[in-house]
Specification:
The chain is α+β, with helices and mostly antiparallel strands. It has helices at residues 2-10, 14-35, 85-98, 126-132, 143-151, 164-170, 176-183, and strands at residues 42-44, 46-50, 53-56, 59-63, 66-67, 75-76, 82-83, 102-109, 115-121, 124-125, 137-138. The strands form three sheets. Strands 1, 2, 3, 4, 8, 9 and 10 form a seven-stranded mixed β-sheet that branches. Strands 5-11 form a two-stranded antiparallel sheet.
Length: 186
């Protein structure tokens, strides 16, 4: 038994064994990187979905690092009036997307098979701009932009609002056709 173990380990002994071990590890690293590589970049004219997502051809894109109010979400202005902050975020995103083709660098996909990406139009980072204008909160990126929007009381920061995640949790989407019919009052 001892003799067999020493034969197995003999492959990796000496200078040639060290090189072989490095080569084996390099091959494993290359295979792992290829299996875990991000999706390729995508670009083109986009169609808005809401304040942090859109379609680029048949691909659905969700911007990374921010969370915009949901389309049906309302916020409270400084004077106490409610305003449709979700629609305002969507409309502003539509304006950015109308300015030219979107250039997106996907990093991953989510559970809904959307590409999770950082995107720009005309060299302007869409996520940074939405957060800087107070139409989205930072969610892992864009902390500086959020702090500036808060300090200047821009957009949602001018009054009161529920964080988009909290709003989604409190307003679950209807499931199935009967859920949608009941949501429509039918």
């Amino acid at each position: 038994m001892l003799q067999r173990r020493s034969r197995r380990n003999a492959i990796f002994r000496g200078p040639g064994g060290a090189v072989l071990a490095v080569v084996v590890l390099a091959v494993i690293a290359v295979v792992a990187a290829a299996l875990d590589s991000p999706p390729p970049p995508v670009a083109g004219q986009a169609r808005v979905s809401d304040g942090d997502s859109f379609r680029l051809g048949e691909k659905r894109i969700r911007l990374l690092g921010l969370d915009a109010p949901e389309l049906a979400q309302s916020c409270t202005a400084a004077d106490g009036r409610t305003w449709p902050c979700g629609r305002a975020a969507r409309d502003r995103m539509a304006q950015f997307l109308a300015a030219g083709p979107a250039d997106c660098r996907p990093e991953d996909t989510d559970q809904y098979e959307r590409l999770l990406a950082t995107c720009s139009v005309g060299g302007h980072d869409l996520g940074a701009t939405m957060v800087a204008e107070g139409l989205a909160i930072s969610a892992g990126r864009y902390w500086t932009e959020e702090a500036a929007a808060r300090n200047h009381r821009l957009g949602i920061w001018a009054g009161d609002f529920d964080a988009p995640r909290t709003w989604r949790d409190d307003h679950p989407r209807p499931q199935g056709i009967s859920g949608w019919l009941s949501a429509l009052g039918l």
